[in-house]
Amino acid sequence: MIELMNDSRALLGRHIRHLVRMPEKLISMTVMPVAYVAVFGVLFGSAISLPGAEYHDYLMAGIFAQTMLMNVSGTGLGVADDLNNGLVDRFRSLPITSTPVMIARTTSNVLLTVLSSIAMSVVGFAIGWRTEAGPLSVLGGFGLLLLLGIGMAWLGAWLGLVLRSPEVINPVTFMVIMPLTFLSNAFIPLNGLPSWLRTICQWNPLSVVVAACRKLFGNDIATSQAGALVVRNPEPRALLLTVALSAIMAPLAVRAYRKAAAG
Amino acid sequence: MDNVIQAEGLRKNYGDRLAVRSVDLSVPGGSVLGVLGPNGAGKTTLVRMLATLLDVDGGHAEVAGYDVTRHPRKVRERIGLTGQYAAVDSRLTARENLRLIGRLHHLDRFAAERRGEELLRRFDLLDAADRYVGTYSGGMRRRVDLAASLIGEPMVLFLDEPTTGLDPASRQVLWDSITEQVEAGTSVLLTTQYLEEADRLADRVVVIDEGSVAAEGKPAELKSRVGGERLRVVVRERSELPGAISALAPIAPEEPDVDTATGEVSIELRNGVESLAQAAEALRGAGVEPDEFGLYRPSLDDVFLSLIGDRTVTEQSALGKART
Ligand SMILES: Nc1ncnc2c1ncn2[C@@H]1O[C@H](COP(=O)(O)OP(=O)(O)OP(=O)(O)O)[C@@H](O)[C@H]1O
Ligand SMILES: [Mg+2]
């Protein structure tokens, strides 16, 4: 266990050096979400009206969640890069297991999205976003987002290992992320949707996580009266979903890594 | 000393393509085995199986006393691997690369640091140690790679074509480091397409072709298999050729080899200096004054080519002349 932690830390150091040395990635991962907050918050904010609430308060939980979904493509591409690089052979000839290699990869991607989220919080605050819940509850909301990010990173790792080439990983992760994000309550209140579409969106697991976050942030004034399935007690279900995602995907990814590398 | 590598019936197939058919090999402790073979012979596949990187499809292998399938971890603690393509992180500096590998060998921070510095000095990389490896030349990158594979002070070192693509000077530097490592007690399995390399470094050579062992032995044994020392005579004038042939024929155990285009006659020498003196005498008697008159030892090139046969002669012709 101690060894697993030490190995993961040594390998994480490598990823962090990469991040610092390739500021393009760091910048694009910060600038893009920040631009999203500004554009969506201001643009959509003036088009979508919520009874008794501000759109940017509604938006933030959704846009954080969207950022966490970026872990799918980020980790997928990173893992493929590792696989196609001779470095995998070096790691496999060392007395370490596959697990720390994968932990370091997912952790570094999650860290990147955490940095994005911090930048987004600042911009969000600037355009008027305020949480309306106790600090512990708000922290819980961020914790839930972190769990989502970790789960998505493991999903991405597994996809990357199964698909292997960036040309395939890009479209596939896009097809995973897009419907999850847009057929959900992340950006739009579901009340106005036709009922069949609303049903789909309510069953989208991401909606549960976003609803839970909103509630924990105290940003759910506008939606709490809708009485929809998704907003009734979403927190335990969101916790279960995100933890289950990691619990299922992490072992799958580690196994896929071992198999991919052992050809 | 016991064998540090012992493989029996080792097999690997990719789909229905047999990359390694059934390879037996053994490497006694402290020795160097050269695995020689043309492109696609299965050298890399073999090394990857022995280094626990690739699952074995048949047969079994023990490296450093442990079964590669059952105890890969134990094997990994005792081996170093320099793969065919440098496995270093090009976005880290050499110093950082070595430190990372040291940490992953579970050296503590200071020990990893110390070992890294030691190897940087030994491989003459101190000046470039803080540059990204991505900016290195091929030869420097190879040196970092070799240094990385030595961090764990391996008992067995695998080198997959360690000098392919290097210029003669870099090759020499690498050869010297390998020799030094062997003198320090490390056993080495080295694959190569350069026969000279096997000749220089290996105690024993295994020639593999299409996934099977085609020949095995000490470099000298393999050479004697294609014949012993030969005398090579090149006449000055084409007209002297018949005279030279008839002078040399009685001394030769077999028909002399003649190349009319170059005016070259060669015969096998059975009795060393004795035959050499006889040949010189006979040529003088026949009034032939040769341009060249000298001993010629078959190289591993000749072994390789006579084993691999005509199939690769055209590809390999740059390496030497075929004698089949
Ligand atoms: N991952 C793979 N999938 C399918 N076939 C493979 C794979 N790796 C190797 N092969 C095949 O197995 C055979 C042996 O390959 P290998 O790389 O071991 O040869 P090699 O002796 O190392 O050649 P080279 O001198 O070119 O490095 C080749 O025919 C190759 O095409
Ligand atoms: Mg090879």
Descriptive report:
Chain A has helices at 2-21, 23-47, 55-84, 87-92, 98-126, 135-163, 166-182, 195-203, 205-217, 221-224, 234-262. Chain A is mainly alpha-helical. Chain A has one domain. The model of chain A has no long low-confidence stretch (mean pLDDT 88). Helices cover 36% and strands 25% of the residues of chain B. With 324 residues, chain B is an alpha/beta fold. In chain B, helix 3 packs across helix 4 and helix 9 crosses helix 10. The chains are: A mainly alpha (263), B alpha/beta (324). At the A-B interface, helix 1 and helix 4 of A face helix 2, strand 6 and helix 3 of B. The structure holds adenosine-5'-triphosphate (ATP) and magnesium ion. Adenosine-5'-triphosphate binds at residues 14, 17, 19, 37, 39-45, 84, 193 of chain B. The site of adenosine-5'-triphosphate (ATP) has 13 residues of chain B, from strand 2 and helix 1.
Secondary-structure element pattern of chain B, one letter each: EEEHEEHEHHHEHEHEEHEHEEHEHH
Uncertain segments of chain B of ≥5 residues (pLDDT<50)? Answer: 312-324
Number of strands of chain A: 0
Radius of gyration of chain B from CA coordinates: 24 Å
Taken in chain order, the helices and strands of chain A follow as HHHHHHHHHHH
Count of individual helical segments of chain B: 12
State the helical fraction of chain A: over 70%
Oligomer: heterodimer
Protein name (chain B): ABC-2 type transport system ATP-binding protein
Subcellular location (chain B): Cell membrane
GO cellular component, one term (chain B): plasma membrane
InterPro entries (chain B): AAA+_ATPase (IPR003593), ABC_transporter-like_ATP-bd (IPR003439), ABC_transporter-like_CS (IPR017871), ABC_transporter_ATP-binding (IPR050763), DrrA (IPR005894), DrrA1/2-like_C (IPR025302), P-loop_NTPase (IPR027417)
